[in-house]
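If your schedule permits, I should be very grateful for your opinion on a structural question. I have a record of one protein: its chain in single-letter code and its fold written as discrete structure tokens. Would you kindly read the sequence against the tokens and tell me how you understand this chain to fold? Thank you for your consideration; the sequence and its tokens are set out here.


***
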Amino acid sequence: MIGTRRMLGGALAAAFCLVSAVTSGETQPSDKTVLCTTQPKGPGGVSATLAEWAEGARLFQRLGSFHRPVSTNAPEAQTYFDQGMRLLWAFNHDEATRSFAKAAALDPGCAMCYWGVSLTVGPNYNLPMMAEPRAAVAWEALQQAEQHAGQATPVEQALIQALAKALPERAAARPLR
């Protein structure tokens, strides 16, 4: 059963990445097949740091127009944040994580950018258990979000506090509460 879930999860991730690549409007070199913007780097094929998650981020076209203003003065960080939200609602959590991580790299003081990383790389109802590398990144991002929450709006602070209650400390291989 677990093997089937992994296979299905991998197939879904590949399908989402392929759809992202095809709908971005960008052409890929004909000698390569690109399913995702990056290949995972860490143990078990999972990026192990925020910086690694941000490395493969790129802006995709035709993902909609959803916009949620966040406390940032960096327009490109806002653009990546908005894309992360669109990808989150499209259930493409890994691509959303890349977008949020890129937004955090562009504006290291943006609490909501780190919130997005923690939300998307952490446990969710489709993936209630986490491998240690994902748990470490989720926890690190949450700590960064809390550290920068003083510069955030009251609504952003409430979202960060809510995630802090939902994300078990160092939640590796434990179900979502």
About this structure: The mean pLDDT is 79. The longest helix spans residues 2-23. Helices lie at 2-23, 50-55, 75-89, 93-106, 111-121, 132-148, 154-166. The chain has one domain: 2-166.
